[in-house]
């Protein structure tokens, strides 16, 4: 009996084959690449979020600093955090701004510093528009009349309140003389000026050329404002390709003007209040002239009254003359044996005319007396400020006496508005209230 050989299958060794291992390594490599790129991107996004937050905090701190101190800080040297006013570009003075994050020391910071800006105001040849300086620079604009080209229509000048009213206390409260209105005027001057390549400005680079777009109040960046030329007071337009990978913030004069709400304050303090003071001052001589006109009106009424008396006397004389004519005519009639003559009719007409003249003169006398009473009453009411019973509106005032008081009060209010500025504190309010 033949026995068949039984074949036992061989067991495959455990583990991966070389191909499977290769595929696994490739998959792990791809996953590792994606993971690495995801981690790098996440870190970059997190870093940009941190930098954006830091730039925003720095920008907010600069706005608060400008509102409180009425100027911008000077750039710092290195990471000192303290401003160096010999610089127009440097790093953020984070210590002066009160930022607790030392990472803000590496933020690049530039500020507009032109202390002799010209060509922006026809009445002022040169304006100190250095935004790091607190200077008394805001003039008031007063419209004096609707003048022709050959006469003065407006006056632009600095308020002299601190010199003329020492009770305001400018020595003890410096912010009364130099305040936010002066900073706003520097911003207005900067926004009206043409772009200057020697001071902080934005530019657009096209091909081999570079065009100045406009002046900038201040700029912030996570690196140098211009990595190729760190001392160049220019910042590329946001559309420029050199901004890729760099976070920056450029704040123009118009934007800072709007954020500080300069328009509301300067329009009221430097224009509306100033022109109200001019109107009140011009009203003083006007009321004196009006009082003189009332006096002339009274004198004219009294002259009219005397003229009416003269007319009555004249009319009475005409009656006497007419009566004499009648007697003369009667004598002639008697001599002609009472024959009616032509002179009789004329004599009768003359007498009637004379009587009519007396009646008319008496009527004019009544009108003249009434005019005298009205003129005297009006002049008296204007002088004393007491309205009369005939004044239904009760609107008569002693304006010749009150006009100077009103003018002084309005002028002081205009000066208080100039002293208080944008964001006055209690000390500023108390000092400005001392104006009398």
From TrEMBL:
It comes from the Bacteria. InterPro entries: N_methyl_site (IPR012902), Pilin-like (IPR045584). Keywords: Membrane, Transmembrane, Transmembrane helix. The chain crosses the membrane at residues 21-40. It comes from Stenotrophomonas capsici. It holds the Pfam family N_methyl. This is Type II secretion system protein. Signal peptide: none annotated.
